[in-house]
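Data card: per-record layout.
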Amino acid sequence: MRDRADDGLFTLVGDVPQLVKNLIVAEFNAIKGWLVKTATDAGIGTGMMFVGLFFIAWVVPLFLTFLVALLSLWLPVWASALIVMGVGVVLAIVAGFIGLAFYKKIGKRESPFSAAKTDIQIVKEAASEY
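The structure for this 130-residue chain is written out next.
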């Protein structure tokens, strides 16, 4: 940034196209960055949902059968099965909430589209003053 206090009107008006170009390039870069972060959060959230489904569908039943058999050495079979089922439900809920947290990050991030809209409104207001 340079001091523009001594610049003439024609110099300032001549710099407007370059400034507009810089603004547009900066807005596109902001949109690209926002899209990358949003896609990353959506991908991680989706991956965590699939991890939760994988545990529910395949690993959990096999491991839970082992735990029920192990706990049935000290407890009745019905109590062993109830304890193991409770742990499995808690693991599935935790994985689901982690995935949901990543999805919620998407909505909290400021969209560059709204920032560009705000910039356009500022330019329109400035243009209407002259």
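Known properties of this structure: The chain has a mean pLDDT of 83. Helices lie at 9-71, 77-108, 112-129.

See the next section for split statistics.
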